[in-house]
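Minutes, project huddle
Topic: does the predicted pose make sense with iron/sulfur cluster bound?
PN asked that the exact inputs be recorded in the minutes so nobody has to dig through chat later. Recorded below.
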Amino acid sequence: MENPLSLPSLVAFIRAVTQDSPENRLQHFADSPIFDEPLVAVADGDDPLFEEYRQVIGSHHLTPREMLRLSQQTDRRSIDADLAHVRVICWVLPITEATRRSNAVMTSEPSMRWAHTQYYGEQFNNELRHAVEQCARKHGAVAIAPVLSPLFRSVHVTPDGPSSTWSERHALFAAGLGTFGLCDGFLTAAGKAMRCGSVVVNVPLPVTARSYSSHREACVYFTQGTCGDCQSRCPAGAIGPNGHDKVKCDRYQEENLRPLRERYGVAITGCGLCQTAVPCESCLPT
Ligand code: SF4
Ligand code: SF4
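Predicted holo structure (tokens), as shared on screen:
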């Protein structure tokens, strides 16, 4: 077994996988990178926020400690593991400028480059989740990537659309990586044109401090009553003064973007117009 997992080695590992992996490449676009250098932070798995998420998201949402404990029941090797410390390793994978620029000029559907970034980028993100999980285990930790685990499932509990047993963006909020915007996107220091991931471990890694006090603090619509640009970017009218209408957004993808699947050669996951050509695209808005 190797030395205990440390934060600097973990950050270096996540950056190295992102830089070197052939999965982090757009084959149809000269093999250019899908994501820039990741942001990495750590949440305390016993942060009271995770209990509060049960009220916000639903009672089906699992805490990090539950994730580890339930995963142990299916993993005989770690059944007696020490769970004195629970941490959530979180990362942000910023979408490259070339991809953001390609989508910023679109008005009703995503660019092909954006669609490939969403599709192949999530495949790379899964590889990264798995790699971080394996890296932690090699260092003797109990680790679970919730999104790859059998514990992860979609639950239809509200008229607002489905939600799942684990929200990575809420884990990122707890880890101090950003706050939510009007469009329901997650605003980070690298912007909201990004994808994110998380792995839960039983290692006493240092917890990242949060520099904000509310879940909408970075969005100037809520703090200053300005902007609202994501509303006008949305071709589905799915963003209004009260936020994001997930049902309308999903219907637009299904009814209007389905023909693109054949043209682009990937299953379209979202138009992402609300993530580009807006002031929070690649940084925090001021
Ligand atoms: S575009 Fe403006 S209103 Fe929309 S999330 Fe970004 S900062 Fe908030
Ligand atoms: S992803 Fe959904 S909310 Fe965002 S612009 Fe497209 S349809 Fe609108």
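Observations noted during the meeting:
- The chain has one domain: 7-275.
- The pocket of iron/sulfur cluster (ligand 2) is lined by residues 183, 233-234, 236, 238-239, 244, 249, 252, 270-274 (CB under 6 Å).
No decisions taken; revisit at the next huddle.
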